Amino acid sequence: MDLNLKTRRVVVAGGSRGIGRAIALAFAQEGAAVSICARGADGVKDAETALKQTGAKVHAATCDLGDGDAVRGYVEAAAQALGGIDILVNNASGFGRTDDEAGWAASINVDLMGTVRATQTAVPHLQKAGGGAILHISSISGLAPSVRTPPYGAVKAALIQLTLTQAAALAKDNIRVNCIAPGSIEFPGGVWDQAKTGNPKLYNGILAGIPFGRMGTAEEVANAAIFLCSAGASWITGQTVAVDGGQMLG
User: What is the rounded distance in angstroms from the CA atom of residue 103 to the CA atom of residue 97?
Assistant: First the structure.
């Protein structure tokens, strides 16, 4: 299927590793112009190099997505570098695990407010382009109790609700807003890659609850992401799609 992404200008907030990097790379491989940001300079540089190898136009910058001014500045810089914005992907996570002020602040500032701020800044550019797509990356932790990570689960649930609200508000501007809720995704240096050796009891317990008997890959999330942002999903908005290998079925 030709996803008609060759002329699209895509901003991936949180695109240096894991799911975000896979999404950015998938867009670049489809011929889109791509901008990525993340907090770590080394990770951004490495991802930028990989993206440029596809032949795509690439913009990359360091940005603390928990800092409002930095988020707004990055999105504006990305729009200038790409010549506009057609697609915004909000992927970054502060991954607040602990039920204390620090844990809640990490998730709220990055996952929620980073998404809100990036979207508010990008929307005028999507309107100028005549429409486009916004995709939020939530988690299946937002669809069920999240006892191990209360802030993470609650804020990911907020992103699912935000998707509904933004989809209803922006339809008049021909802007679609959808959300992906990944299950347990394993990639080098990620949470589950670390847990495999650092907390094998937890890793194996989660693995036992996935019908396919394996963790998902970042590329499998990326496949869903580029479809939802493409013309092939032109009549899909306000939806949250679990990409979890049936993990929520247990």
Answer: 6
- What topology does CATH give the domain 9-188+217-244? Rossmann fold (3.40.50)
Which of 74-88, 153-167, 188-202 has the weakest average pLDDT?
188-202
Examine the residue annotation and report whether 74 is marked as an active-site residue of this protein. Answer: no
CB 227 within 8 A of CB 176: no
User: Dihedral through CA 209, CA 153, CA 229, CA 92, nearest 10?
Assistant: -110
CB atoms within 10 A of CB 204: 11
Domain ranges of the chain: 9-188+217-244
CA dist 10 and 228 (Å) reads 13
The reported pTM is 0.97
Q: Which of 27, 104, 152, 203 is catalytic?
A: 152
Please give the Cα distance from 144 to 147 (Å, whole number): 9
